[in-house]
């Protein structure tokens, strides 16, 4: 399932309008009129995300966020504060109170949906971290940071030669931070060798005449091994709504518009830096030997050896809980032609970038593996037919919708992908088919239908 969202808004019409938008996107929705009602709802069952209207009262909102963040069970639930936010200070106040994001009304639907997806992805990653470390204390940024002495490296890539004053302000107001600068194009041309960058600030506020420049930088940063895990913030002109939504889906961790005040940028940077250090801590806990045995060296994804037993476990678990799940076989179209036209090394780079795009768009509970060659596998627990199809179509668009740039000359390569989806009903009736080999075969049969149906499409089969 896409997830459950709790809407808190005193105005009935607002609640209903928002509910309809979220239902269309396959979220389950609960509605609350007051914070007291919300608290009872959260105590009864934890939602995946909260949309909180700040008209309910500044102090009450602040107390609510503080209480939620202090509650171990609920502290990872992302909160989006919505409201009129008449002054920049109001936005910062909501963020400082503990909201993960603020959206000024009226908000753009695409941005809202992309924000929700992005926040849920990072929530899942943090949940995984918490699970592995065992205790909340071990996770606390303060503890992790006490060992961390090297300065946090920021790289500001901006169209102007001079650093914008609000970004210069970061080096004075963020602790232990070193600010570096670069032209946007050099990020994609030159390898970043000097030191690992913790946070990229892509400052396009002066103008984004061509969206593709931003998409290319994001795809590249997410696919390079040295920047794959860096945090990324894109700063955009206020009219770049489409680019903003796509940037979030391509792996930007945060976007801000040119109207946003320096203090808000500072706050958001501090949050991104903290998230980066937490994620680094997680990666350090994975033993490198074990990791190598189950990892595909080209893309860094799980390999077939890891994926197959995972599918068996998923199938058993789902049957136990009577939940549906989806298996997708993804295969790049006419990939042989990419190798033949641009060379094998360029083909490898397309594979790496494909892996990065897919990974950036899936949640931590979803499995992504490279099964061999140009074939990938995705397993989505707890998914119904509508959600599975939507997810598959989104992944398909993510590959076909923006070109890849490869080789020393950053040549543009357009690639499409076909996806076969097998949806298990998660009941005993499906048992006969749900050995891991049979699951992969079933998705492969659907993939074959997508290929013979013309490629660049999704085909679905069910138990
Ligand atoms: P279709 O749309 O039917 O899937 O056509 P296709 O060309 O993608 O499929 P085919 O199976 O004919 O060719 C797959 C190609 O993938 C051939 C092989 O050289 C290439 N390939 C497999 N593994 C790798 C790899 O690790 N790197 C590169 N660069 N190419 C690879
Ligand atoms: Mg292929």
From TrEMBL:
A Pfam match: Response_reg
EC identifiers of the protein: 2.7.7.65
Coiled-coil segments on the chain, per record: none
Residues carrying 4-aspartylphosphate: 53
NCBIfam families (alphabetical): GGDEF
Catalytic activity: 2 GTP = 3',3'-c-di-GMP + 2 diphosphate
Name of the protein: diguanylate cyclase
Organism: Octadecabacter ascidiaceicola
């Amino acid at each position: 399932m896409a997830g459950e969202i709790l809407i808190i808004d005193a105005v009935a019409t607002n609640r209903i309008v928002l509910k309809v938008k979220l239902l269309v996107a396959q979220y389950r929705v609960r509605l609350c009129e007051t914070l007291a009602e919300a608290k009872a709802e959260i105590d009864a069952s934890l939602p995946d995300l909260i949309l909180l209207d700040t008209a309910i009262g500044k102090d009450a909102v602040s107390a609510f966020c503080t209480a939620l963040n202090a509650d171990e069970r609920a502290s990872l639930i992302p909160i989006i504060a919505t409201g009129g936010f008449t002054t920049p200070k109001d936005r910062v106040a909501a963020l400082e109170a503990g909201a993960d994001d603020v959206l000024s009304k009226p908000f753009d639907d695409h941005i809202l949906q992309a924000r929700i997806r992005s926040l849920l992805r990072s929530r899942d990653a943090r949940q995984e971290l918490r699970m592995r470390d065992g205790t909340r204390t071990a996770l606390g940024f303060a503890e992790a940071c006490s060992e961390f002495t090297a300065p946090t490296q920021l790289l500001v890539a901006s169209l102007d030669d001079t650093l914008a004053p609000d970004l210069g302000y970061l080096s004075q107001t963020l602790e232990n931070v070193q600010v570096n600068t670069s032209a946007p194009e050099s990020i994609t041309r030159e390898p970043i060798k000097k030191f690992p960058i913790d946070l990229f600030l892509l400052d396009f506020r002066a103008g984004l005449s061509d969206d593709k420049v931003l998409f290319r930088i994001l795809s590249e940063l997410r696919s390079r091994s040295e920047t794959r895990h860096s945090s990324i913030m894109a700063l955009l002109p206020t009219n770049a709504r489409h680019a903003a939504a796509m940037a979030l889906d391509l792996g930007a961790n945060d976007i801000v518009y040119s109207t946003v005040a320096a203090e808000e940028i500072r706050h958001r940077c501090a949050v991104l830096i903290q998230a980066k250090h937490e994620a680094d801590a997680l990666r350090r806990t994975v033993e490198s030997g074990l990791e190598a045995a189950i990892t595909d060296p080209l893309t860094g994804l799980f390999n077939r050896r890891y994926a197959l037993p995972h599918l068996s476990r998923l199938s058993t678990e789902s049957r136990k809980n009577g939940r549906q799940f989806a298996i997708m076989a993804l295969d790049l179209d006419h990939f042989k032609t990419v190798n033949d036209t641009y060379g094998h090394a360029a083909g490898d780079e397309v594979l790496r970038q494909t892996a990065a795009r897919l990974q950036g768009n899936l949640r931590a509970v979803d499995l992504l593996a490279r099964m061999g060659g140009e074939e990938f596998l995705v397993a989505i627990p707890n998914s119904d037919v509508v959600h599975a199809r939507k997810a598959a179509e989104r992944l398909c668009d993510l590959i076909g919708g923006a070109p890849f740039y490869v080789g020393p000359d950053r040549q543009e390569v357009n690639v499409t992908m076909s996806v076969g989806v097998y949806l298990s009903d998660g009941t005993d009736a499906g048992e006969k088919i749900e050995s891991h080999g049979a699951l992969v075969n079933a998705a492969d049969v659907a993939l074959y239908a997508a290929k013979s149906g013309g490629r660049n499409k999704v085909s679905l089969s069910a138990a």
